[in-house]
Amino acid sequence: MTLEEKVKEALDEIRPQLQADGGDLEFVSLEDGGIVNVKLTGACGNCPMATMTLKMGVERFLMDKIPEVTQVCQVFE
Q: What is the pTM of this model?
């Protein structure tokens, strides 16, 4: 399984928690050095707590589950 596949699988595990609050996230890309780019959507897309959700929730989960992940960044499209 590639690193990108591992990341996508892990994001699918955390997605139901975001969806329970009316939000979601989309995988955008994986950069060299283990940087994961995601787009927060739904209620998460414009929530003032989105940065905390991203860093304390999604990033911490991914880094604990996949040691190669070094950072999670929000992409605004």
A: 0.91
